[in-house]
Design brief:
Helices cover 33% and strands 23% of the residues. By secondary structure, the protein is α/β, with parallel strands linked by helices. Strands 5-4-1-8-9-10-11-12-13 form a 9-stranded mixed sheet, with helices on both faces. Strands 3-2-6-7 form a 4-stranded mixed sheet. A hairpin with a 5-residue loop joins strand 11 and strand 12. It is built from 9 helices and 13 strands.
């Protein structure tokens, strides 16, 4: 991994195991297997949209660890993995059972003792970080263990020292920690973050912010000196604040086949367009289009192309003959 790198991400990637739609886990005889993790989802989405992306993590040197790497590489992501003894660590997994209303979709995590929980900065191949344009991670990773939190901080600091723009997606997970603990950890990391992505709901419930999305963005930018704050509002779209200027973006209509990974696709679209020279408004437009497209694709990964995104932005649709 030499030369200039557009984007480096860091975090855990798990194997997602899913029964066929309409089948309950307790009766399933077959499970589909796919890779999924917030930061690698972003790396894949950005790579498919033209960015040179690298994903850093730690995995056991086992068939399952290699399975994760091979899937990410198949989408053009370069991987920098610290390989661990498979006798003492494992690949985290999660089970996803799709269900329509009123049952809904169920997610069951099995990630205890995953290799990522013992990760240390010195064991990661971080050469790409030294010349990266951007570095991205999420609030999931520091929740996994004290070591993962320390390594997250160390990589954010190193990326800043190398001159990279650092982005952080809050990505709060109630199954990993409570709001008070998460808020304290996030606020320690904010000193090393340039661009913050945060859902309005989490800004209110985890960060204790009040007001509408614009007020939330202004408050966070003023307190933590972020260059850019992007607040997502679900069906109401997103708001970005950069250097005092406010940008708004609506959503693109999508028939939802699989909503998992939509937020990661949004981030990937934004980062890919910004890396390609687009301004904040352009980035939001591509973010919204990438998120809409992801909802039509099974699995965590946004298996999309620049042409797909451009078609959504331009309003093209219908049957591709």
């Amino acid at each position: 991994m030499v030369g200039v790198t557009d984007l480096v991400t860091f975090g855990e990637t798990m194997l997602r195991l899913s029964p066929p739609r309409g089948v309950r886990l307790e009766t399933a005889r077959n499970l589909g297997v796919q890779a999924g993790g917030a930061e690698s989802n972003v790396a894949v989405g950005a790579a498919r949209l033209g960015a040179d992306a690298v994903w850093l993590s730690k995995l056991p040197e086992s068939p399952l660890g290699r399975r994760v790497v091979s899937e990410l590489r198949s989408h053009g992501v370069r991987t920098g993995v610290a390989w661990d003894d498979p006798e003492s660590s494992r690949v985290g997994t999660y089970y996803l059972e799709h269900g329509g209303e009123p049952r809904g979709t169920t997610v069951i995590y099995d990630r205890a003792d995953a290799a990522i929980t013992t990760v240390e900065p010195g064991e990661l191949p971080t050469a790409a970080l030294e010349s990266a344009d951007r570095f991205h991670t999420t609030g999931i990773t520091p929740a996994l263990s004290d070591r993962a939190a320390e390594t997250t901080t160390a990589l954010l600091r190193a990326a800043g020292e190398a001159g990279a723009t650092r982005s952080f997606d809050l990505n709060y997970r109630a199954k990993l920690w409570d709001p008070e603990t998460a808020r304290a950890a996030y606020e320690e990391l904010f000193a090393h973050v340039d661009t913050l992505f945060v859902p309005r709901r989490d800004a209110r419930e985890v960060l204790g912010r009040e007001g509408d999305a614009v007020e939330i963005a202004h408050g966070l930018a003023a307190e933590f000196d972020f260059t850019t704050v992007v607040v997502t509002r679900g069906a109401e779209g997103a708001v970005a604040l950069r250097n005092g200027a406010v940008y708004e973006q609506g959503v693109y209509d999508a028939e939802t086949f699989d909503a998992i990974g939509t937020g990661d696709a949004f981030v990937a679209g934004y980062l890919a367009k910004r890396l390609d020279g687009g301004d904040v408004a352009d980035g939001l437009e591509w973010a919204a289009a990438a998120a809409a497209l992801k909802r039509t694709v099974d699995g965590d990964l946004a298996v999309i192309s620049p042409e797909d995104v451009a078609a959504v932005v331009d309003g093209a649709g219908g049957i591709d003959r």
